[in-house]
Design goal:
Elements: E1 5-12, H1 17-37, E2 41-44, E3 51-58, E4 61-69, E5 73-80, H2 82-85, H3 88-103
Antiparallel strand pairs: 1-5, 2-3, 3-4, 4-5
């Protein structure tokens, strides 16, 4: 089996840490539902300061991720199986798409 690979994504924002965290909390349930439809189980830790960790398992694979909320940027770090890492350009495009939606007016409410 190939070694795990760390993928990172940093997205600037002007919302402030409290508002970004509020939006992340608001949209977490929706994201978990989408993963569940694909038979992927997500477990989330509680917030520890401005950081929240996640683990995911499905289709025989496990991955972990953490988000760090800053006053002017969102940082996401994921550790994925090496076999999945070849799709990292796709993950980045999808991650930036959802980050833009989260940071837009659309992301202010469900």
């Amino acid at each position: 089996m190939s070694k795990p690979v760390t993928l990172t994504l940093t997205v600037p924002h002007a919302l402030g840490a409290a508002e970004l965290r509020r939006r992340l909390d608001l949209h977490t349930a929706w994201a978990f539902e989408q993963f569940a439809k694909e038979r992927i189980t997500i477990e989330a830790d509680e917030w520890f300061g401005k950081r929240r960790a996640f683990s995911a398992s499905g289709h025989g694979l496990r991955a972990g991720a953490a988000i760090q909320v800053g006053d002017d940027e969102l940082h996401v770090e994921a550790i994925v199986p090496g076999v999945v890492a070849k799709f990292s350009p796709v993950f980045e495009v999808i991650g930036r798409h959802y980050a833009r939606r989260l940071l837009s007016e659309e992301g202010a409410a469900l």
